[in-house]
Design a protein that fits this description.
The protein has helices spanning about 10-35, 40-65, 75-85, 90-95, 100-110, 115-135, 135-140, 140-165, 170-200, 205-230, 235-260, 265-290. The protein is mainly alpha-helical and about 300 residues long.
């Protein structure tokens, strides 16, 4: 062993070192695996370089612990799966955010081993490099996704709430909601196409239309689903609102990680708009039903 740990304080330090060592070797394998799966040569080169740095960090701690650590294979598998499903940017930034605790660990280690802060600084450099290196199509078109998602959540959740009280029949609400939503999805796709074409930027108009329209359509199907499976129209309304909130949480968590945006402010804004309009529409459905004297 490169150093004797024969005091209680050193045992605490030893545990901190082995923890840092395991983190480094695990991230080495994550970056190495990600580098083999990406086709972008620039991304591949930087990921390989960072993978090498992580291995060097592991070997640095090895001279103090006297042994090599094994990677957390489950963590490697999870992050590689996340990268495949949600994109390289999201997976890497999610992992880098988890290094906040590792930096605290380095600060504690630096009391006995000052070189730990040099490694912490390298970790900060990694994050800066990663932010600037990755260029993914899904992030270039995130504006189109936001357009489709926002409109679907706000418009359709409000419409379904109004239809719920006006029609008071789950199947009728599902039918009207689907007709309205599918027509709106095509309309939003056309809007996305014209918007991208008029901007004249790097976004392809047809792809913008697809991202906007498909996002809107998927949201329509998710929001109308409760009315297809439940006969109690108020129960379907409650489930629809829950699904809307879950969609808002998932989407804002994704964008907050991938684009370094604040989560709570964006979540609150979107949730208040969607649920507020749904509440108003519910009241409008009641008023219209009474004014027209419709009984179903």
């Amino acid at each position: 062993m490169g150093r004797e740990f024969d005091m209680l304080a050193d045992k605490v330090l030893y545990r901190a070192l082995t923890s840092a060592q395991k983190c480094e070797i695990t991230e080495h394998f994550i970056y190495k695996t990600l580098s083999t799966s990406t086709r972008d040569l620039n991304n591949k080169e930087i990921l390989q370089r960072i993978s090498t740095d992580e291995l060097r960090h592991h070997d640095f701690w090895k001279q103090f612990t006297g042994h090599a650590e094994r990677p957390d294979r489950l963590k490697v598998w999870i992050y590689c799966l996340v990268a495949k499903l949600l994109g390289l940017t999201f997976a890497v930034k999610l992992m880098e955010k988890g290094e906040g605790q590792a930096r605290i660990n380095y600060q504690n280690i630096a009391v006995s081993i000052p070189a730990a802060m040099d490694i912490a600084e390298e970790e900060d450099k990694h994050e800066a490099e990663l932010i600037g290196m990755i260029d993914e199509e899904r992030l270039n078109y995130i504006g189109s996704v936001v357009l489709g998602l926002n409109d679907a959540l706000i418009e359709l959740s409000g419409a379904l709430a109004g239809f719920t009280l006006a029609l008071q029949n789950s199947r009728l609400v599902a039918m009207v909601g689907l007709i309205t939503g599918i027509a709106a999805a095509f309309s939003m796709g056309g809007t996305g196409y014209l918007a991208a074409k008029s901007e004249g930027g790097s976004r392809a108009p047809l792809r913008s239309a697809l991202y906007t329209g498909v996002t809107y359509l998927v949201t329509v199907l998710l929001l109308t689903f409760p009315y297809m499976i439940l006969t109690n129209v108020l129960g379907a309304l409650a489930l629809m609102i829950c699904i809307a909130v879950i969609i808002i949480v998932v989407f804002n968590f994704y964008t907050s990680v991938a684009r370094d945006l604040p989560f709570w402010s964006r979540f609150s804004e979107m949730a208040l708009l969607s649920l507020g309009i749904a509440a108003v529409s519910f009241g409008i459905g009641f008023v219209v039903r009474k004014l027209l004297g419709v009984e179903l």
